[in-house]
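Researcher: Please predict.
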Amino acid sequence: MTVTVRDFRTEDAPAVVALRRACLPFVVVTEKDLLFEVANANPAKKYRLLVAEEAGEVIGTAHVGIAYDSEDPGQSSVTPHVLPGRRGRGAGSLILKTAEEHLAAHGATSVYAWALEEPGSLAFAARHGYRPTRPARFQSLDLTGDALPELPAVLPAGVVLRTGDAYAADPRPLFEADAEVSSDEPGDIATTLDDYEDWLNHTWNHPCLDRELTTVVEVDGQVAAFTSAHTDGATRYATGMTGTRRAFRGRGLAKLAKTDSLRRARAAGYQEAFTSNDADNGPMLAVNRWFGYRVCATEVRHVRELS
């Protein structure tokens, strides 16, 4: 049967979410956040959500966009996902071709894509001219069985734990902390968080962000560290970002933030916790090992230069 590629329609949401869960079981995704991303994409991103269809069934999908917040112009990204059992029919190749043409038309010179570290995905990337750059580790933690560290009986002088919801009236201190720690993260595409309104729209107001389970560590009234929590509202919890501002590093504040958030997530009934880190992010990988996270998958970033 013929495979076709088209743009996402609202009624595709259940099928696309099911597909992403089948391909990436260690990622938290819901229909609500999928529709939010489509409706609220920054115009500068030139965003498209592509869908591959065969005989009326959604068998593949890909988020496509320009890295509009990158310091280097011309960067872009796409990662095709095709249902297991429906691969080898040309869906991934057609999605990739459609995405590359769209990105090139909007000035992209480099396209970045993730491929799972398994033979089929790596061979697909190589066959389409993508070269590997760096790996990332997905990690999981069983909140129903794995022991969690205890919070200290007494916090250090000047240290206070707050939830993200405590900043509902003025989240700018969290934006400033996020901007600082994000700039220090290793990665292929250097990004700069300097647009507060854009951050409010895409980070603070993201429907998967659980502000009550997000933990912020204040030191003498200043935001020093934080861990943001994303959930599916049922059983799955994921770390959106954990970081410590430069002036407060080396004091165990990231561990303190994650301990508080994970313990409250477990008390709220969440059963699985997920996180991911660049393979070069040694400090956070060490922190997650300390909590008992186990590597459950590895993705390899790839890039192709567009001529």
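Model: The mean pLDDT is 95.
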